[in-house]
Amino acid sequence: MTRMFVDAWDPAYGASFEGGDGGDGPASPSSAQVDTDVEVPAAQWAPIDVPAGLTAPDVVFLVDGVRRNDAGLWTAEEDGQSFPGLAASYAAGVVRCDLRNGVAQLAGARVARGLFTASPSAEDLQAGSVRYTIHRVSGTGEASKLPAAVQGPLTALELDISDDARTSGSDGADLLVVDGPLRNRRHLPRTIGYIKTQQKQYLPAALTPVVTSLKPGQRTPVFAMGTVWGGWSWYLRLPGASGAPWAGIVRIECSPDLTPDQAIELAELSVATLPRFASSAYKDPRAPQNLVPIAGLEKRLRGMLGDSRVLHRALTLATTRLR
After folding, report:
1. Cβ-based neighbour number of residue 82 at 10 Å
2. Which of 94, 123, 124, 318 could form a disulfide with 165, with the two C-beta atoms 3.0–4.6 Å apart?
3. Per-state percent for the chain, helix, strand, coil, to nearest 5
4. Distance (Å, whole) CA 5 – CA 149
């Protein structure tokens, strides 16, 4: 009889994995070259438990960012051309979790707003008390591609926030968890990227059963990924999943500039640290992958973005004055 499982994730967020009809995990294979013999030979792959005696760092920083499209715009150039634009708000923040004392607090948060367009003449836009700083995009600046242009400034904001938090609240024995792939944040020390949803199948089919057989609090061996950004990676399963093959599975990555031993050390720390932050289905529609501190941070940051209706009205008035 076919087994069936209910994904704990709210369907409004898609799925915790992007799989085929059978729900057996990521259906889209990656073209990246993968080295699975980093920690142990592929033939010896098996689930790995937290090493005996290993404890989580005293301090864990969790970083995330949010963004919102406030309004779509169009420019009217003097030569008759017209360019689409996007007014967007975005924010980044850091939660500092003091595991020794059981305290979590917002270590820093910052809001920014931008006007994204390929228009050569557009300038900063003042909408009431809010200024949207111009971000000139390359190419023709099609409207459908403008939302993606917000990611660069948002990542830069996350970097600034991370540096500030660590400078003021770290003793050098912490762990920084970035929500999402590391990308150009891989230079940050003692940092891992936390990928909640699995859209690509990176491992060969023969090793997939190792991933799906993980118990809560176990990980796979470390493997090397030959993607554009590169890096070391591994999978782990969080507690509280439904029991479906890929439920509660997250992928973690760290900088390719690290040695294999350093990557393995971070992998061990991740399994000792991340399961304690797993969310519960009755509290979070993206449980257990949406970590509790991240969920709280997202809520706080979205509140800091302000009322979208008020901003839309201010943008409408501001653009009316420019005609």
Report:
1. 10
2. 94
3. 25, 30, 40
4. 37
